[in-house]
Amino acid sequence: MYHLFLTVSTIVISVGFAVQSTSGGPDFRTTTTNQSDYILTSIPHNPLEEPSTRKACSSESSVDMKFRNESEKDACCREIVDSFSSIWTGIVYRITDYLRILKMLRCPQFHRECEHRTYDFTEFTGLTYDRFCDAQSYDQKCGAAINETMQKHVTRFSSEPEIISQAVRNNTSVSRLNSLRNLTLDMEDLLKPCVQAGLIDTERCVEGTFYEMKEFQAPFCGLIWCGFPGYAFESHEISEWTCMPKTCRINVYILMVVCGILALVSVAVNFLSLVIFSKNQRLRDSQGIFKFSLALADLLIGLIVLPLGIETMRRTYMPATVLFRPEEHGSFYLKFYTFSNPYHNFAGFFTTLTNLVAIFTLVIASLDRFMVVFRPLRYNVYTAKSWAVKLSIGVWLACVLLSIIPIIHPNMRYALIAGFLESPMGGDEVIILAIYFVIPLILVVLIHVATIVYSRRNARARPKAISNRNKTKEINIENRLAKTLGIMVGAFLLCLLPLGVMIIAHAFMPDINPARPNLLSPEKLVMMSSLEHIFCVVFLSNSIWNFVIYNARSAEFRAAAKRYYNGLETKLFSKLKYSTAEERRRKPSAALSSSQVPCNTASTALNI
Questions:
Q1: Summary count for the chain: helices (H), strands (E)
Q2: Which of 119, 204, 213, 538 is the most exposed place for a label (fewest CB within 10 A)?
Q3: How far apart are CA 278 and CA 294, in angstroms?
Q4: Helix (H/G/I), strand (E/B), else coil: 323
C-alpha cells in the first residue's frame, strides 16, 4: 500500500507540473516588470485603445465616430469585446470604459452585455451595469444612499453651497449624480458601492476622473472590484486593500502570521539539526551527510523563501501604493507599485534552489541505500561517506546552475504560479520542469521501490542461522536507515501532492479560469485560490518534518539533541546565576558609598 501511495503521488505531481507547463500555470494576475525593485509603473498600452476606440472615448457622442459600413463597425465592436475578455483582470482595464465604448458606438454587443452581465461579480460591478443599462433600477437601489450622501455635505460643508442647493432644487437622479461628481467626498462615502457607481460618467470619457481596483486571488475572500474618482488618489493611498472587507484583511494577516511562525520554527529546528550533525561523529555517515544537506536547504526555506512569501502577499494584497499624478501637460496616469524582475528572480532562484536540492538529495540518498542492498559485499561505509560529501557538493553546484537558467535564458522567466510561490515559466519550461521536478521524483520512487524489493530478496536468501551479532546489528541499522529515508520521501511527496492536485484541477475546471469570464464562477475561484495558498504552506512545511522524522527514528539523534538542550540550558543558567551574583555584589558597595556621602559632606563643612 505504501509503494502504491508513492507511485500514485509521483504520477499526480508529474502530471500537475506538465499541466502547469502547457497551461501557463493557474495564476492570472496581470503584472508589469521594471528594472528597479518595487517601483512605480505607469499604465501600459491598453489593447482597447486602438484608433477607433480612442476616438470613441474622446468623442462627446457616438455621432462623431464614422465607419465606412456596418461590417467595419461590427468588426470593431467584436474586437473590443474579445480584447476586454482576454485582459479584463488587469488593474488598468476598466469595465466602465468597456461599457461606455460599446454604448457610444451603438454596438449590438452592448445590449447582449446588459442582458448577460458577464462581469457582474461584485456589488460595484452590478451597480455599474445598472448605471449603463437600467438607470431606473440603479435609482431604486441607491437613490436613498445618494440623497444621504448629499445631505451629509449640506450639513458638513459650506464651501459648496451652490452645488448642494442645485441638487436639492432639481431632485432628479441625473442632476443628483452630476452634482455628486462635482463634490469632493471623504473616504467614508467613497467606500460605498452606490456612491462609487454614481460617480461614473456614462456619457463622456474624461481621462483621469475614475479608476478601478480589482483583486481575484486573495485567499478566503470574495472577488474585489471597486472604483474611485481621480481626486481620491491625491489625498489617500488607494489599492485593492482599500476595498477589502475587514474579515478578508484578517484572513490575509492570519496567513502571513502562520507563514511567519513556520519560518521561525523551520530556522530553529534546522539550525539545531545542522549543529547536531556537525558535532556528533556517529551521525556523520553517508546518510548523515545527506541529511545535513537537506537541513541546510530547509534552513534557507525558513530564512528566505517563507519571508519572501510573506512579502509577496503583502505586495499583492495590501500594497497601499497606488498614486494619482497628473503630468505637466494635463495628461493623467495611474501609477502603482509592482513586482520587479530582480524581485521575481531573487524569490524564484531561492525557491527553485531549495526544492531542487531537496529533490536531488533524496535521489542520491536513495541511490546510497539501494547500493547497500544491491551490492552489500562491495559497499564500504568510509568510501560511501566520501562519495556522499562529493555528491552533496555537486548537487548544490548543479542546482545553483539550474536555478540561474530562467534568469539568463532569453525566453524564460520566474513568475508566480500558485499562491505565493515562484516557478520557471517561458518557452522551454516543459523540458526545464521535467528535468527539475518530474524525472527526479520518478527516480526517487523507482529507486526506493527497488531498494525494498532487493532488501526482501536478500532477507530470503540470507541463512536463517546467522550467529554473528555484529552482522545482524549492522543489517538492522541499514534496514532502519532505509525505512527512515522512505518516510522522508513519503513526507515530501505528501506535502507536494495537494499542490500538484490543485495544478491539475486548474486545467480541468474552466469555471475558475478568469480568461473565460462567461464561464467564471467567483465562488469556485475563491475556494480554489484559498486552497492554493493553504497547500503552498503545507508544501513549505516539509522543511520542519525532516527534523520530526529524525527525532522519531534515530535514538542517537535524540540523545545528541538532548545533550545539546542540556548544555544550552546549563550555559544559560550559569550566565543568569553569574549576572544575579554580580548584581548582588554591586548593591552593598553602592549602599556603602551612598552612606558615606553625609559623613564626607559634614567633614567638609567642619573644615570650612
A1: 24, 7
A2: 204
A3: 13
A4: strand
| Extended strands (E) in 172-257 | 210-215, 224-229
Given the C-alpha cell 545542522, which residue does it identify?
274
Residues 6+ apart with CB under 8 A from 54: none
Contact by Cβ (8 Å): 249, 241: yes
Q: Which residues of 398-424 are buried (b: 16+ CB within 10 A; e: fewer)?
A: ebeebbebbbeeeebbbbbbbbbbbbb
Q: Cα–Cα distance between 455 and 478 in angstroms, integer? A: 10
Cα separation, 547 vs 545, in Å, equals 5
Nearest residue to 212 via CA among 110, 293, 124, 340: 124
Q: Which helix (H) or strand (E) holds 334?
A: strand 332-338
Report the alpha-carbon distance of residue 142 to residue 123 in Å, rounded. Answer: 12
pLDDT > 70: percent of the chain: 72
User: Element (H or E) spanning 424, and its range?
Assistant: strand 421-426
What does the pLDDT look like over 342-356, one tens digit per residue?
889 999 999 999 999
Domain ranges in the chain? 2-20+260-318+338-565, 40-246
Global pTM?
Answer: 0.77
In this structure, the strands spanning 332-338 and 39-41 are antiparallel
- The torsion of the CA quartet 585, 588, 590, 593, rounded to 10 degrees, works out to -130
> What's the pLDDT tens digit per position in 428-451?
667 777 777 788 888 888 888 888
Tell me: pLDDT of 306 over 90: yes
Written out in words, the top-level CATH class of the domain with range 2-20+260-318+338-565 is mainly alpha
Strand, coil or helix: 414: strand
